[in-house]
Amino acid sequence: MPGGTGRRPCFPENGKCGVKLKRRDLIPLAGVGAASVYAALQPGAKPRGRFGIRSPVAVVKAANYEADLTGQIARGIAECGLNVRGKRVLLKPNLVEFDSATCINTDARVVAAAVEVFERLGASEVSIGEGPGHRRDTWDLTELAGYRSIIPDFDRRFTDLNRDDVTPVKSFLNADSFYFPATVLRADLIVSLAKMKTHHWAGATLSMKNFFGVVPGSVYGWPKNQLHFYGIDESILALHRVFGSKSFAIVDGIVGMEGNGPIQGNPKPVGVLVMGSDLVAVDSTCCRIMGLVPENISYISRSTSGNISEDDIDMRGESVADTTTSFKVLPAFQNLLVG
Amino acid sequence: MSASALSSRRDFLRQTQNADGGWGYFPGKWSWLEPTLYAILALHGDPAADRGFQLVQRWALPQGGWRTSAEVAESNWTSALCLTVYCARNVKDQAFELGLRSVLGTVGMEGSFLFQLGHLLHRDLVDFDSSLQGWPWRPQNASWVEPTAHSVVALKRVEASGLKERLPGIRARIDAAERMLLDRRCTDGGWNYGNTRVRGVTLPSYPETTALALLGLQGHPKAQLKPSLDLAQHYWRQAKSPLARAWLAISLRNFGFSRLESAPQDPPKPSQDILIAALQCLGEPGGGHAFLKTGSVA
């Protein structure tokens, strides 16, 4: 379980819980509107890139999980010009397994901070959902990972996406229809709260791969083997086609995982949060920070709905050069390394 | 769990039954086949279980198998659980016959030419014997531990009920699946979802899947299972997950371990998870774990 947090959850009697904000946290929140206008007026907003516009990606520093995460997430969102007022926001963390010796999951303090920020920005609802791929006792995982103790009002917010009610979506890959959780389909905005990790099948798992967790185990099993039969890359791309247009990414790279990820790798401190609405651009930027070549990761290079090239990404906040920390990879993925 | 706690869990199941007779995974959610089947077993003999079974009978598919839920008109691994429930209620109607044929006709894709070719070319990726086939979570997928364990338990129950001669394929499937389960046993003696090694790296087992695999292997020589049973007892002493503890209780009791200590740390409040509540009932003395017992069937 993660250790103590610099932000102690409060539990007000009215049930409207929240992480206590320091005064300085509110500065970037108040500046969202201004930042959006500012962003639109910047040279970077001129139509360029693969799709006629450069994709804003914000990289903000957070040295550790005791840092001002609320302020930094608010700053990144503002840099990207995201408007969530009145929207039903679903936070989708990466919760896979728990091992106290390493850092498999999106840290609970990042999720808690995101809840706080999206509520402050006027979202009509901020819920959390995840459907782990291997373990069936999702609630126990949330307990072990510290979610239930750290995230305010967690039990009310959380849905086990593996066992939610489902609704069919037509024409998903080879299937006439494919079932997705109702909680995911009804969300106006899905925030992929991914973890910056290497992956023993896909090379890297970031905000796009994180969508495997929305596939319901109650229909497709544990692991979600149907996606492997469709092809991992094909499935990532198909999920992105379904959900990418209503998604935003916040990648927890404060401590990532290198080597034999996504479960048995080693902690890799990077000290960043990476954010943006173009998940392909966010994942490409994460790869560069990890010392990986995004064009060599199949699902990224094959994506037709996002920007990959540095020329097509409008970096906000920190630069890639200032945050690059080379990740170790398994021998099978040496081709992903820069140089 | 005390007798009053068991009674309380059963009350919880009665109170959360949906109007259609089924149960959702959580209170107020649509009915799904899986929690409905476990609730039926946990409430065996209760009118609520009868109403649940009537829904299951309505969900039988004309081609064999049962709907996964009111919304999902496809069968998956839960059809094997249906066979177990039909056996527990001693119902052998046409839906049962079609369901049995559907389960027997479902096989992991390891046996396909393309899968075997891929496995031969990339043997370092995952380490298992692809000639041993069990059951997938859903048709046209590979075999995994949990659906295989459920199917083996179901077929052993069917076999014991006297259908062996009419369906000679049953024993062959059971034997192959038991070998598959043993092949997928992790080096620590337990089981995870079904991979022992990925890219040359050994993977650990999980408590709940260890319990399930042991259920599937009931009747095997105990000497061969001793390391696994030792691990299951270790998990029982350590595990906090209510799901894991429920499956461990069911499994260990069916292997004759009648005296199980209480949980190392009780959960702060009774779970609102209907599937877990039903399994907790089954794991108690007299709670119904014998419906999943094979070998010398109770």
Beginning-to-end CA distance, first to last residue of chain A: 37 Å
Most residues in contact: chain pair: A-B, 30 and 41 residues
Instruction: Tell me the fraction of residues in β-strands of chain B, as a range.
Output: under 5%
Low-confidence stretches of chain A: 1-47
As a whole number of angstroms, the C-alpha radius of gyration of chain B is 19 Å
With strands numbered from the N-terminus, the spatial order across the biggest sheet of chain B is 1-2
Please mark out the parts of chain B with pLDDT under 50 across 5 or more consecutive residues, or reply none: none
Oligomer: heterodimer
Largest sheet of chain A: 9 strands, mixed
The tally of beta strands of chain B, per DSSP, is 2
Structural class of chain B: mainly alpha
Helix content of chain A: 25-40%
Which terms would index this structure?
heterodimer; A: 339 residues; alpha/beta; two-stranded antiparallel sheet; 14 helices; 13 strands; 24% strand; disordered N terminus; B: 298 residues; mainly alpha; two-stranded antiparallel ribbon; 12 helices; 2 strands; 1% strand
